[in-house]
Amino acid sequence: MTQIVIFIIILLIPIVTSDDTTPIPPNKAQLGSWFQENVLHHGARKDGLDPALVAAEEGGAKIVKVRKDGGGDFKTVAAAVGSIPAGNTRRVVVWIGGGKYTEKIKIDRNKPFVTFYGAPNDVPTLVFDGTAAEYGTVDSATLIVESDYFSAANLIIANSAPRPDGKRKGAQATSLRISGDKAAFYNTKIYGFQDTVCDDKGRHFFKDCYIEGTVDFIFGSGKSLYLNTELHVIPGDPVALITAQARKSNSEDTGYAFVHCDVTGTGRNAFLGRAWMPYAKVVYAYTTMSDVVDPKGWSDNFKPENDKNVFFGEYNCKGPGSSLEGRVGFFKKLSDADATPFLNLGFIEGSKWLLPPPTL
Fold it and tell me: Is 357 a domain residue?
């Protein structure tokens, strides 16, 4: 009898699972509840998460504090990162006090499970003035993340190098390079001009963020979902390019999905993406586009042979820049079935690793 009672009790215990296929709602007002229901704390869905991630979170986070005034464990972010041991297996939260930190920061591949956290009411700024001429494009970034399971919340990341003028060689300057797998950015503002974000490789998630630039200001071979993020085109260039996705073959599982985002700016001179590589894949869904978007929408990088290979899609967008009249022939007006793979966390296999933003 006791065994039967125990069995019944077990059956009644709710089992929480995360379903990658739950669609992102078309109504932006429902995003908050959708996210809360589908991205739960690790303790509520241990069985579905990567075992290494569960182990890193189970031990409790180690908090390292950075304050410019010396009131923390370190005065610089780079020093705090340097204190994390190679082969780290535990979540380490680098709490960064308010102010401007002028330094170049790199998290090596052998330091996974790192979080950068700034207080929401006193957001810190990480800034440096590296350029491609000095470091090479991808290594010019103010913040370089090569490790897996990185997360960030409440940050400003900027590159303060002068705006490229078309004359200075190597003037492009990256603010963020994310080369690790399974990384998430929440409430992060990223400022730059050309090549602002190197979304280099791996699966990434950006939510409630702001990214600005002029040319190729999101570029690389990442597979990333951008949700409720503003993409701001800085005026002044004859042509602006938001994305330069670097998918090289049809077998590569990469691409960018922008869902419930806002494309802002003015001038009718911005392309949603260019075929930097011949199989570039970029989709905009439920996105509001200002008149900054060139009516043609997309560029094949002056290589017509790319037209048959690229995957440039739009789905249920709105705003003056979303008009499909005048779009290039190689863009795709996505059907419901076409759009479905881009409209859920399964696009980045989020159920295996994505966690809510940290709170301290």
Answer: no
